[in-house]
Amino acid sequence: MSPDTLALIAYIFSTTFTPGPNNITATAAGVTFGVKRSLPYLWGIALGFFLLMIASGYCSYFLRLKFANIASIIKYLGFAYMLWLCVSIFIERENSSLQKKKYTFANGMLLQLINPKVILYGITLYGMFFKILTRNGLGILLSAIGLALFGFLAVLTWCSAGSALNRRLNDRRVRLVFKGAMSALLLYSAFTILLD
């Protein structure tokens, strides 16, 4: 497996599974309603995620066709964003308003359309890893489906682990180790692509 492919996998895993609006609300939904009653909300998240990946992929494709030199600019912007993500993982945030929303399919989908983490994730992913993910329009569709399914797996995991994960992450040492591991994966991804 090439270093670029390893960097892509590390980026997808660390970004998809770290706490953010999707995973936090999925955890809250799991604790409140259980997995079965939370599924419409989780599928809404997956659909919104898919729509953003399609938009990001086709925007990157169009920009690469029309403005070939933009790839290096996107590469450095993506690198800066990934460094910011490494730091932001350690910043504690309380967002009770997100957890008070109703867990419906529509709210799950709408959460994606205003979720800056997913928007920047899609732009960075297709901007930095375009050659690995796809080379044409059909590849964008297939990669977006795969990424959305992986995103669904992440929110399903957080939903399923709900209360147990919350209890474990309340332990400061466990939370610090988790955040450190996710930051290390992001740093690896960022520097691998920058040095490519």
Secondary-structure blueprint:
Elements: H1 3-17, H2 21-66, H3 70-88, H4 96-99, H5 105-113, H6 116-128, H7 130-133, H8 137-169, H9 172-194
Helix pairs in contact: 1-9, 2-5, 2-6, 2-8, 3-6, 3-9
Report on the architecture of this protein:
- By secondary structure, the protein is an all-alpha fold.
- 85% of the residues lie in helices and 0% in strands.
- Helix 1 (3-17) runs antiparallel to helix 9 (172-194), helix 2 crosses helix 5 (105-113) and helix 2 packs antiparallel against helix 8.
- The chain is globular, with a radius of gyration of 17 Å.
- The model is unreliable at 94-100 (pLDDT under 50).
- Ends distance: 15 Å
Secondary-structure element order, N to C = HHHHHHHHH
The secondary-structure class comes to mainly alpha
Helix content: over 70%
Portion in strands: under 5%
> Roughly how many Å is the radius of gyration?
17 Å
What's the main sheet like? none
Quaternary structure of the protein: single chain
| Shape label | globular
Number of DSSP E strands: 0
Number of helices: 9
Q: Can you tell me the residue ranges where pLDDT is under 50 for at least 5 consecutive residues?
A: 94-100
Q: What is the average per-residue confidence, as pLDDT, rounded to a whole number?
A: 78
Number of domains: 1
Short structural summary:
With 196 residues, this protein is an all-alpha fold. The chain has helices at residues 3-17, 21-66, 70-88, 96-99, 105-113, 116-128, 130-133, 137-169, 172-194.
Notable characteristics:
196 residues; mainly alpha
